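Hello Y.,

Per our agreement to keep a running log of every chain we model this quarter, I'm adding this entry. I've kept the format consistent with earlier entries: sequence first, then predicted structure.
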Amino acid sequence: MRATVVGAGVVGLTTAVTLVERGAEVSLVERSLELGGNASWLAGGMLAPFCEGESAPPQVTELGRRAIDWWEAHAPGVARTGTLVVAPPRDVSEIERFAQRTSGYERVDEARIAALEPDLSGRFHNGLFFAGEGHLDPRAALRALARRLRGQGGELRFGEDGMRLGSEAGIVLDCRGFAARPQLPDLRGVRGEMIRVRTPEVRLTRSVRLLHPRIPLYVVPRADGEYMIGATMIESAEKGAVSVRSALELLSAAYALHPAFGEAEILEMSADVRPAYPDNEPRIEEREGRVFVNGFYRHGFLLAPAFAEKAAALAFEKAGRAKALTARDAEPHLGKWLIENLAGAGEIELPSRQEDRPDPFEGWEL
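Predicted structure for the entry above:
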């Protein structure tokens, strides 16, 4: 089967790798000149299906539970260290609210928090620990998928408009995210902002969520003392730079988690737009001769593996239907054969049943 995937974000790369692993001939086209420059590049990389259940539909938890195994088999540095959820003493009610809406956790007290994250010792009195969760570095993961695609014979082409594909493209799977809104009018944009910092003064080994009634914060550790701090969720399709308000809120929340973040070096402040449908759940749909895989909201890395499997299955099904139609059209047809082979032969007298002659076509399947 020949397939072309459009868009080299996490959904496009995951879909392309899944297809090539199933034996398809795959090309991945991306309008940017290099890997990155999209919402996936700015993601937190949290593989946290149980925590996401706090505000997401049940499908997110159910499908996301398999993601950490998929990523561990496809990308380096997947940390299966769980997620720690804490709140300042004045917002302790947020812990109870979060617990009521989630599952898969154990309640932790001050001593247990200190054992999990010594640098948070004495700062929080209770929280929740989701041992079955983890995280990864999105940029390292996307690079790994690109290498895997090429290593298994797939093609990755940058600087190419995926809207101008010829018949040689085969089955087209469109994974362009919010860029596909002209074809998917139900999509809306959700702006997310993040800050990346470096500090040798804080050592965290797992994702930490700091609950706050207005600005929930998560801090995800990276290599070499780096941390990703995120992320806002603003109902807007405007990209632009990180706003002053968002920067203040994110950095203030990080400072509340640990004062040493106040001395951290800011490496990056970025924003992008994530695609979402009205129900915040991804969809796979066929339109205009394409299979669209879109609407991942804030769950790209968590749900991409499951939806890549679904999209690949649909692509092979479509290819099978097309092959069956082609084979049917290639079958010999009696009328067509007579016209092509007896043209110009003059009048042909066919046997008549009235003359008690055997029917030469008896038993033929037309």
